[in-house]
Structure formats: C-alpha cells, structure tokens
Amino acid sequence: MSKIKLGFSALFTLILLSMFAALASAEGNFTPTPSNPAEGINIGTVDNFGQVNAHKTHGNFQNNTNSCANCHSTHNGADTKLVKFKNAEYDMCLSCHDGTMGFYNVKKASGAGIFSESHESESMHNVSSGIKNSAAPGAYTNKDTNELTCSSCHNPHGSVNDRLLKENVIANTPFAYTMVNGVKVPTQNGIKTVNLALTEDPAFADINKSTTNSGLKITTSIGPKDNTDKVNYSQFCAACHDDYAASRSAGRNSNKDKAPGNTNHDFLYTHTSNSSSQGRNCAACHYAHGTDISTLMDTAGKTIADLTKSPAQGGKGWTETVAKDYMKDVSAGGSSNKKFTNMAVCWACHQSTHVIPGVTPVPGGDYSGKTKIR
C-alpha cells in the first residue's frame, strides 16, 4: 500500500510541477523544485506519514507546515496581521488565485462568477476598492464599517465549507437569524453553514483520477446543495444585504422606520429567499464574485461562447461581435452581478407569462434557461 501511495503522491507532485513550469519558463529565471513549485511559494514534500505529498495552503496543516510563510511575514508584515503584501488581502489572494497558482482562478468564469477586467457589461463585488460593507445595496440594519475584502466572505485559514465560506460573516456576526420588521433576530442555533452541490472539474480530470488515496478532488460548484442550504446562502448574503432577506410580505408600517439618510426599500413584496419551501436563493439570479460580457447568459442559458459555435455544435454560428452586441447588458442599473443579461433574468424563470394561446412563440425563441436557475 505504501508503494502505491508513494507512486500516486510522486505523480501528484509531478503534475503540480508541470502546472507551474509554464509560468516559470515564461519568466525565464526560475526553476521549480518539489519544495518550491513557484517563485515565492515554499511547501514541504513529506507528509505526516513519511510520504511525498504537497502541503495544504488553507488549513489542515501538516505538523511540519511552512504554509504560514506564504502569506505572513513574522517581522516585516505590511499590516497588523503580519500580511506580506502592501495592499493586503486582495494582492495576497490574487498572488495565487489569478491563475498562476491555486486551482481556483477568480479571473476565470466559474460557478461563483468572475472578477473581470473586461469593462464590458461588468459588475462585481469590488473587494479591492475600499468600499465599506455597510454600503451594500439593500443594507438596512447592517452597520459594519469594515472594508469589503476577500475575507468578508471567506476564511483563509479554512472552514467546513469547500469554498472556505465563513460561518460567521462581517465582524464575526453569525448569519443565522430571521428578519422581523426589518430587524435581525438571532436564531437559537447560532451558526449555520452552506453546503454546495459540487461536481468534479473536467479540466482537472487527470489530477482527480490520480488522487483517490489522498482524497484531493478539484471541483466546480453549481450552487447551494438543497433547499435548506439555499436559505442559509441567502442569509449569508443578507449579512450585508440585510434588507433583501425579508419575507414575501414584509412591508413596514411607515417611513418612520427608516434611519435618517438610509436608502432601504419601503417594500410590500419581494422575491422570497428566506423560505425553504420556495427553494429560491440569491445565487439563482446572481453570481457571488461578479459578471461580465463573457459570463452573461440569455434565456436559453447560452453564453457568447455558445452562440459563436456552429449550428451543428448547438450554436448559431455568429461572429463574436454579433454575439457581444446581442448579449450586452443595457439595463440602466448595470448588470448587477446578474447571471442573465438585461431582464432575461426574469424571463429565464417566468416562462409561462409570455405564453399566449393560439399564438406561435417568437421565432428563434428558446426559454430553456430555467435549468440554470437554482
């Protein structure tokens, strides 16, 4: 068994090295080694069982870990948490998660969306802008004035969630609560978690095949796992966007409930996101990280990449220019992290509202995108 494990572990190390070799050769001045697979990233090669293996970066550290030093500097930290980077979290996280290191590239379209630089139909959680959590759209009772950063939602030291989502959100406030007349009322059980529906990433099929013994799997997420998790997910988002977690008929008695200068909605009805019977959550319509022209879909669930494929491949054979003009979000409020372009985000779910008995549907119309709504 040890020989088998050693063989698999050595293969995994070689795969890691090959992933980083392209980057190294492009720079021309760095040669990767098992203990330093990329410039400035130093990991051990022998695990607690004496086998060759790569060490974890986020939590579940080996007894001989060196992972702390990848992000922190003991004597020369750039901030009070001894983080190495001047611009702290964003630069630190992007030093790996920009595609040069780490399996999850936040600049690449994923189930969480994308941190994009396309500047076309682009919107996102601007974690590097210095914006305050309390400035979130729909913020009503949330008074947290910390800056929005990666760690507002993720715990870099690990969590029970596959994507390191925190059990406590902003300022360590548990997100397990219900909204009563616009006021957060904590639940008895306190902390909740969000389980995600995960599938193996086909882009890393070789790694997933070779790591059965270690349990390492590179996965993609298609959203919360079941209805309970969908409600938890909505409450997770409502730690900042608290006004949006209200019940379906949570109208306020009068404008006196509004804090001076607060721009919260004085609504009567809203899309329910706090009831497991509805099975609806924020991720049904929005991407957590953000969206751009490449991630937006139409009501058929098609992206620009899909539309430029030939008809034989299920596309329309359009040029990229035509596909972009078709997909561009022209809403006055911008794309708002939406999965679907313009108000197609409504059509994708409310498909029955356009059906007129005896009338042929619009030529070329395809409303199958509802399968993308979770």
Overview of the structural elements:
Among the domains are: 126-281, no CATH class; 289-374, no CATH class. It contains 7 helices and 8 strands; from the N terminus they run ααββββββαβαβααα. It has helices spanning 2-27, 88-97, 205-210, 227-237, 304-307, 320-327, 344-347, and strands at residues 123-124, 168-169, 173-174, 177-180, 183-186, 196-200, 219-224, 290-291. It has a two-stranded antiparallel ribbon with strand order 1-8. Strands 2-3 form a two-stranded antiparallel ribbon. A hairpin with a 3-residue loop joins strand 2 (168-169) and strand 3. One of its GO terms (molecular function) is oxidoreductase activity. Keywords: Signal. It comes from Neobacillus novalis. Pfam families: Paired_CXXCH_1.
> Distance between termini?
42 Å
Main-sheet strand order equals 1-8
Oligomer: single chain
- In N-to-C order, the SSE pattern is HHEEEEEEHEHEHHH
Question: What's the rounded overall pLDDT mean?
Answer: 75
- Proportion of strand residues: 5-15%
Shape assignment:
globular
| Count of helical stretches | 7
Main beta-sheet strand count, sense and barrel state: 2 strands, antiparallel
Low-confidence residue ranges: 1-28, 252-265
Which range best describes the helical content: under 10%, 10-25%, 25-40%, 40-55%, 55-70% or over 70%?
10-25%
The tally of strands reads: 8
Structural class: alpha+beta
Radius of gyration: 23 Å
Keywords: Signal
Pfam families: Paired_CXXCH_1
GO molecular function, one term: oxidoreductase activity
Protein name: Cytochrome c3 family protein
